[in-house]
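U., I forgot to send this yesterday:
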Amino acid sequence: MYSMTTQIAGRRLAEKQPADNQLQAGWCARLAGDRNRVVLADGRDERVLAAAAELAGLGIVPVLVDEPAEIRRSAAAAGVKLPSDVVILAPEQVRRSGAGELLAERAAGRKPGTAEAWLADPLFLAMAALAADDADACVAGANRPTADVLRAALRVVGTAEGSDCVSSSFLMHLQDGRTFGYGDCAVLPEPDAGQLAEVAVATSRTFAALTGEEPQVAMLSFSTMGSADHASVSRVREATAIVRDREPGLAVDGELQFDAALLESVARSKAPDSGVAGHANVFIFPNLAAGNIGYKITQRLGGAAAYGPILQGLALPVNDLSRGCTAADVVNVAIISVLQSQTSVTRLGPSGL
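Result:
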């Protein structure tokens, strides 16, 4: 049942910048009344504090992990008034809870001092709070490199059952209203065929969860249906076959050049028998270089809004922020993370690494 507060918050988001925020407004409408909890690991950062205040207004419960006095001091210095809905967890409070016990267990058997270091680190404490079900999702990285966030997530939260790798995708929202999924653009430099297939499946699920659209997956290459031959082309073909075997109900085809995947006029001549060519909405790049360049071209030359990187393959929703993020970025990533918790995650317990 929708709460009046959350309905108003959803309308406020839609009215603020109609052209840019219809996607976010739809997400907020789906979350209305659920009181989802997202733990924010960078609790003293002024951008995170501003985002926490806005998230509380949207009906999401922000959980900040750090010393309460330091958080309030930072909020006052930034001119941010934290609503009463914002939860502040002192590190000692986390250490003495089930989250602290879980973190100590995860550190067992590692080099001396690991447990002490993790129990003193807000990033690891935030991951433990998520793993202990004190939050539904975790957002981190405003002040930490991606490698730190991924390391903490893998060691505390672990990978999802059946997942062999962690990957990422971007949701690209174009000015004409179309939305596309891009993967992998941030994590795997040179995926093998099995990893590339996993990226395709994960990205298709992320896209469906966030847009409600049926994914049409194009496995991209510089070749279309045998027009060229190379080891990288063979890897894309092999990955396509793995996806078809693993997910027989998923619309996927490859190898396809980008123009053949996107444009019906090109698809008719290059891939006339393809069920995906000409109307793909999920694009799987053959390696990280192509994916990273591709999303930035779409964003910078095409004027698209880029939501991501959205991490995939973890047991629970964790997402990484750029250290150059804005408060609005934190809000968007938090909303996406909570949606992931509702649509694709089950709490079977972390596998750990």
